Amino acid sequence: MPSHLRILRFSLVVGALVLLLAGCGSHSTANGSRSNSPSTGPITEPSTEGTTGLESPQSPGNPGVSVSVAALPIGSGDSQPTPDGQDVCVDVLWLGTLRGTVTLKVTSVIVRPHPPFMTVDVATAGCTTDDGPPCAGLRLTAADNGGGKTCAVGIGEQAGGRAGGGSVELAGELNCADPGSAICQQTRAGLETKARDGTSADFEFPIPPATSSPTATSSPTATSSPTATSSPTDTNSP
Predict the structure, then answer these.
(1) Cα distance between residue 92 and residue 129, in whole Å
(2) In this predicted model, which residue has the larger pLDDT, 34 or 219?
(3) Alpha-carbon gap, residue 199 to 70, rounded angstroms
(4) What angle do CA 154, 73, 158 make, to 5 degrees?
């Protein structure tokens, strides 16, 4: 065989060996680098960007619009003064009717006459759970229909004297998904009609009895002068 053919064959064999060795080396390097890297990444908390744990899910649709009601239909419950007679707890009876999902919040408590009366803390006025929750800020729903729901108002006295009696009135606002809807309009109209029967709860404030002046003591009875004794009879006279 000619020498140049042997040289060519040898070159081809050497080249093939070089390529084979190069391929094995790169594969080992790749495997080595892969084995040195961690199998999994660090565990992280799910992203909370744009959210907070305290937020409640937003209700679908219109969140609601408030519709003012100047005078709510209420009646008189019991009223009980504190032992010292300084304050009175007044039970206010809810007489209105709410429809569907329409709710109502009491936004104002009005006391008449003012002065001398004013609102005080219900605890100061001696109110208990039997009197109901405080009227101020009370939220009512259709579950409170029926005339048995009461709330409490504490009444105190300002300087200016006691009037003896007074009344409590409530104002509020309806919460409707759509203020123009039939159910919202019907609820408001029903409250206004019912309010014609009464929009106040009356109470009596105790009037302390007038303090009488002390009874004048009579002067001591004058003692009578001792009875004069008669002189003895002269038995010697003729």
Answers:
(1) 13
(2) 219
(3) 10
(4) 25
| 41 phi/psi in degrees, rounded to 5 | -80, 175
Q: Which candidate, 81, 95, 86, 116, places its Cα nearest to that of 169?
A: 95
pLDDT digits (tens, 9 = 90+) for 103-130: 999 999 999 998 899 999 999 999 999 9
Per-residue pLDDT, averaged over 26-50, amounts to 40
* H or E element, residue 29: helix 3-36
Q: Give the C-alpha separation, 84 to 96, whole Å.
A: 34
Contact call for residues 153 and 90 (beta carbons, < 8 A): yes
Instruction: Give the C-alpha distances (Å, rounded to integers) separating 60 from 56, 57, 102.
Output: 12, 9, 16
pLDDT above 50 (res 1): yes
Give the list of residues 6+ apart from residue 72 with CB closer than 8 angstroms, or none: 94, 96, 104, 106, 169, 170, 171, 172, 191, 195, 199
- Beta-carbon count within 10 A of 111 CB: 21
Instruction: Work out whether strand 165-176 and strand 117-120 pair parallel, antiparallel, or are unpaired.
Output: unpaired
Burial class (CB in 10 A: 0-12, 13-18, 19+), 215: exposed
- Cα separation, 95 vs 148, in Å, equals 8
Q: pLDDT tens across 84-102, in order? A: 888 999 999 999 999 999 9
If you ran DSSP here, which 8-state letter would residue 42 be given?
Answer: P
Q: How many CB atoms lie within 10 A of CB 122?
A: 23
**Amino acid in the structure at residue 50:** G
Which residue(s) pair with 76 in the sheet?
Answer: 92
